[in-house]
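2024-03-11 09:14:02 DEBUG pipeline.ingest accepted 1 chain
2024-03-11 09:14:02 DEBUG pipeline.ingest length=317
2024-03-11 09:14:03 DEBUG pipeline.predict start
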Amino acid sequence: MQKLEQEILMLGPQIDLYVQELESKFSKVHKFWQIEDQASFLKNHADNIKGLATSGGTGAKKELIAQLPSLEIIASSGVGYDSIDVSYAHSKNIIVTNTPNVLNDCVADTGMMLIYAVARQLVNADHFVRNGVWGKGAYPLTVSLKNKVCGIAGLGNIGLEVAKRAQACGMKIYYTSRHDKHIEGYQYVEDIEILAEQSDFLILTLPSSPDTHHLVNAEVLKRLGPQGFLVNIARGSVVDEQALIAALKNQEIAGAGLDVFEKEPCIQSELFDMKQVVLTPHYASGTRETRRAMGDLACANLYEYFSQRKALTPVSG
């Protein structure tokens, strides 16, 4: 396969296989995070950059996009694109792509893992054994998932995969979405406050947007109640984190499983000292297989656009 002549600017680290794939298809791939004097690089090379390779975590801000007058496409490895200034890019006729569907299973698996972990107190039980406490008596009883209501906020592709897994555990599926999807056995609820009130486990699988910012606030958490658990595999911005901390402190909810946070990387938080909370480092899609699939699709978006003038998975937002 002959390499394409367009120069690609990769904004942040990606898995080696993705980098190698890009380098096998394009004549030049600049690794922006390794460049010491980025301002000088942009001054000397901006006119040559036709494509950006980024990720949901790294994003692409307006200030950078504005410095790349020849940019035609931004390919993000990730399903979420809230970290990319999509509206500005589109105003400059720049295509933005993401990698939907290839990460659905792993993200849904993480959601179910967190549901199990908070219900059965996995981390605390592990410490109970490791710290030799078991010899002093049995571990306290935990919560079964069978017949519990799994309330899914955002029944998109990932939400549907969560629902399948939860249903297999004997859970009842309630959900809120833009509209009723009329799925047999699933109960549609119009309002997230009502959904929280009816849920034993409220799991968030909806995108970050101005409409979903702090959607889960103090009132929603109050409705979830002292026997309810919150699980977030969406975006940190969907939850008012200070309200969540207060609800946990005051035992207004039973616990939480969080893969995402308002500020990332999260290196300091009151959540760290809460035993009823399980935390993971925004790694829901973080398996070798899924990251490879994400990288392959991101690379394919760039290659197909520059070779065929048609991106595979453009975003419209």
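2024-03-11 09:14:41 DEBUG pipeline.report The radius of gyration is 22 Å.
2024-03-11 09:14:41 DEBUG pipeline.predict end
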